[in-house]
């Protein structure tokens, strides 16, 4: 169960098995059913979760009441609302399981304790936050500067095989287009 997390961490830092075991202690194993909401807009986010199995969508409702998907979190990805977690403000995001899923959850308090007792963990999360910032920058540049066709191709590259696990509406929400327009793009590309 923790092998995936160990591999994920090993991309950023080196941890002995003993240190990894210490790191794992505060994590709580949780299961979420399909359509179960992990975080609802207006609530406070006090966790980070590492996806072991399954798929989540992280989204908000725009001013017209339409879902705008920020990203999908699949195996090996993390889920949280970083703004709510860091700044202790109500979340504007929703996190929902799209499949039956398994997650390792850590509270903000437990994560802070790990920072104090294991300095290399602070480095781990700093590196992860840097990678997340790069991904966010790339997502913004893609949304503001690329055609829907190119965004769709990027989606297929970034999330190989995920399209088969999602509805056309969910993919369209991620791309910022209607599902009708997505159908046209798919026909054109195929």
Automatic annotation (TrEMBL):
All copies of domain Cyclic nucleotide-binding, residue ranges: 14-114
Coiled coil (UniProt feature): none
InterPro entries per the UniProt record, alphabetical: cNMP-bd_dom (IPR000595), cNMP-bd_dom_sf (IPR018490), RmlC-like_jellyroll (IPR014710)
Name by which UniProt lists this protein: cAMP-binding domain of CRP or a regulatory subunit of cAMP-dependent protein kinases
CDD domains named among the record's database cross-references: CAP_ED
Species in which this protein is naturally found: Chryseobacterium rhizoplanae
SUPFAM superfamilies xref list: cAMP-binding domain-like
């Amino acid at each position: 169960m923790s092998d995936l997390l160990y591999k994920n961490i090993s991309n950023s830092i080196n941890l002995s098995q003993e240190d990894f075991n210490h790191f794992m202690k505060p994590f709580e194993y949780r299961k979420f059913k399909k359509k179960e909401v992990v975080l609802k807009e207006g609530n406070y986010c006090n966790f980070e979760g590492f996806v072991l199995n399954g798929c989540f969508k992280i989204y908000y409702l725009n001013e017209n009441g339409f879902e705008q998907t920020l990203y999908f979190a699949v195996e090996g990805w993390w889920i949280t609302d970083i703004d709510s977690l860091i700044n202790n403000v109500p979340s504007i995001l929703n996190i929902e399981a799209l499949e039956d899923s398994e997650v390792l959850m850590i509270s903000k308090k437990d994560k802070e304790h790990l920072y104090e007792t294991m300095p290399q963990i602070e480095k781990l999360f700093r590196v992860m936050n840097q990678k997340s910032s790069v991904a966010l920058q790339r997502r913004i540049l893609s949304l503001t500067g690329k055609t829907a066709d190119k965004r769709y191709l990027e989606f297929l590259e970034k999330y190989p095989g995920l399209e088969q696990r999602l509805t056309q509406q969910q993919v369209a929400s991620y791309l910022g287009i209607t599902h009708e327009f997505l159908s046209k793009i798919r026909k054109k590309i195929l």
